[in-house]
Specification:
This protein is an alpha+beta fold. It folds into two domains: 4-93, Pseudouridine synthase I, catalytic domain, N-terminal subdomain (Alpha-Beta Plaits); 118-256, Pseudouridine synthase I, catalytic domain, C-terminal subdomain (Alpha-Beta Plaits), CATH 3.30.70.660. Helices cover 23% and strands 20% of the residues. It contains six helices and nine strands. The protein has helices spanning 14-19, 38-50, 83-93, 146-153, 208-220, 228-235; strands spanning 57-58, 67-68, 73-74, 118-126, 138-139, 158-161, 176-189, 192-201, 250-256. Strands 2, 4, 5, 6, 7, 8 and 9 form a seven-stranded mixed beta sheet that branches. Strand 7 (176-189) and strand 8 form a beta hairpin. Helix 4 crosses helix 5. The longest helix is centred in the first third of the chain and has 13 residues, at 38-50. Belongs to the tRNA pseudouridine synthase TruA family. GO terms for molecular function: RNA binding; tRNA pseudouridine(38-40) synthase activity. Residues 36-114, 154-257 form the Pseudouridine synthase I TruA alpha/beta domain. Substrate binds at residue 121. It catalyses: uridine(38/39/40) in tRNA = pseudouridine(38/39/40) in tRNA.
C-alpha cells in the first residue's frame, strides 16, 4: 500500500530506466528518500536489501497522486533470504508512505499485470475543506445529488465500449470492459460525511475511473441528466464525457487473481 501524494505515479521514469541497469546496487544502509516513482522507490529498496538488479512488475500504473490500499507487484530474485525477512527488511528501508503488507512465492509464469482478472477502485469525495483531507479526497463545495448519480451509474454497469471514458489519445486497441459493480454511498468519518464511489471491473482503460467519476459529479451537480450517460457511451468519444476527476481522491483497493 502507498500514499501517492509525493510521487510521480507508479511507473519508473523512462530516462531513469536507461541509467539504472549500468549502476551497481546501492549500499544497504538507512532509509531511502521519498519522491520519484513508487516502482523506482521499491526497486531501489529491493536492490539495497538483496544486492542484485531488480525489475518490479506492478498490476497497474497508478498516476501521480493516486493511492493504493492493495497494489500487487512481482519480481525475480536469486536471494536465499526468507520471505518474512525480505518483507521486514523492505519496510525498514522504504519511506513511511510505502508499506509492504504481505509477500509470497508465486509460479514462474505469474505476472501481476496480465494474470489479474479484476480490480476494484474507490474514490472519496469530501464536502468540507479540511487540511487533513486535501491530498486524500476530492473536495466538492456543494452537496451532490447522490440519487441522481446512482441512477446514472446504472447505465455503466455491464459490458460496454468505454471509449468515451478513456484518456484522449490512449493507444489501447480494445476499449470493451465489464463493470461488475458500481456503488455510491455516504460514509461517516471523523471529518463528517464523505461520498464513496466504488467500482469493480475486469479491467480499466487509462484514466477510466477518474473520467467516470468526473462525469458522475456533473450529474450530482445537476449539470447533466442521469440518462445522458447512456448517450455518452454510444458516442464512443472522450469529448462528450465530463472532466477528469482529481487523482488525489482515487485508491486502488483490490486486485483479483
Amino acid at each position: 500500500s502507498y500514499d501517492g501524494t509525493g510521487y510521480s505515479g507508479w511507473q519508473r521514469q523512462r530516462n531513469s530506466s536507461k541509467i539504472r541497469p549500468h549502476l551497481p546496487p546501492p549500499p544497504l544502509r538507512g532509509r531511502i528518500k521519498e519522491g520519484g516513482t513508487i516502482q523506482g522507490t521499491i526497486e531501489e529498496a529491493l536492490e539495497k536489501l538483496l544486492q542484485e538488479k531488480i525489475n518490479l512488475i506492478g498490476s497497474g500504473r497508478t498516476d501521480a497522486g493516486v493511492h493504493a490500499i492493495a497494489q500487487t507487484a512481482n519480481f525475480k530474485t536469486n536471494t536465499i533470504l526468507p520471505l518474512q525477512a525480505i518483507k521486514k527488511g523492505l519496510n525498514a528501508i522504504l519511506p513511511g508512505d510505502i508499506r509492504i503488507n504481505s509477500i509470497r512465492k508465486v509460479p514462474e509464469n505469474f505476472n501481476s499485470r496480465y494474470s489479474a482478472c479484476g480490480k476494484t477502485y474507490q474514490y472519496l469525495i469530501s464536502f468540507y475543506f479540511y487540511p487533513f483531507l486535501r491530498n486524500y479526497t476530492c473536495y466538492s463545495p456543494c452537496q451532490l445529488n447522490l440519487s441522481a448519480m446512482k441512477k446514472a451509474s446504472e447505465f455503466l454497469v455491464g459490458r460496454h465500449n468505454f471509449s468515451s471514458f478513456q484518456a484522449a489519445g490512449s493507444r489501447i486497441r480494445n476499449p470493451i470492459r465489464s463493470i461488475k459493480r458500481l456503488s455510491i454511498k455516504k460514509t461517516k468519518t471523523l471529518f463528517g460525511n464523505l461520498a464513496l464511489i466504488e467500482i469493480e471491473a475486469d479491467g480499466f482503460l487509462y484514466k477510466m475511473v477518474r473520467n467516470i467519476v468526473g462525469t458522475l459529479l456533473e450529474v450530482g451537480k445537476s449539470k447533466m441528466a442521469p440518462d445522458e450517460i447512456e448517450k455518452i457511451l454510444d458516442k464512443k468519444n472522450r469529448k462528450f464525457a465530463g472532466p477528469t476527476a482529481p487523482a488525489k481522491g482515487l485508491y486502488l483497493k483490490r486486485v483479483k487473481y
